[in-house]
Amino acid sequence: MFTLVDRGSGQRYVVPAKSAGEPTVRLLLAVAEEESLTVHTVGFRACDPLEGDENFQREAVIHGDGEYVDGDAHVNTCESHASLARRWPSPRRGVSKDRLTPYLRAFQLRRRILRNPGQEALKDVVRTVL
Q: Please, are residues 28 and 34 in contact by the beta-carbon 8 Å criterion?
């Protein structure tokens, strides 16, 4: 499971993935519409090839070395969102892999509704349902 946060828009995404390799990371980052993208990671090895790629600027914080923030580089929002996503299926005693995507979509909709005030939340629900 990958957690992505767009710091510009504040959008948060939780994406289930069968593998955690470089091809999966590149596929997830390919949806970015910007010419140059800054990727903040926790030293994840699958992101190492991004170092030499001109489309990405990678900034990493290595928790194992006691580093949790380096200027603007941190992954706190991702870690917070991921911890909430992991707890979401717990009352249901877990979720099978084939049902994980619908559960994560419901989780993301709920989080968007909680962040939006009143009428904006209703519009978001209607857009999602229709």
A: no
Nearest to 58 by CA among 67, 46, 68, 66: 46
Per-residue pLDDT tens digits of the chain, which is 130 residues long: 777 777 777 777 777 777 778 888 888 777 766 666 777 778 777 777 777 777 777 787 888 888 888 888 878 777 877 777 777 766 666 677 777 778 788 877 777 777 777 777 778 778 777 6
Both tokens of residue 24?
């999966």
- For the whole model, what pTM was predicted? 0.59
What is d(CA 88, CA 94) in angstroms, rounded to the nearest whole number?
Answer: 9
Question: Residue 128 has which token pair?
Answer: 């999602």
Distance of alpha carbon 111 from its chain centroid, rounded?
A: 13
Residue 20's contacts (CB-CB under 8 Å, 6 or more residues apart) are 2, 44, 46
Q: Any residues with CB less than 8 A from the CB of 24 and at least 6 apart, and which? A: 2, 17, 18, 46
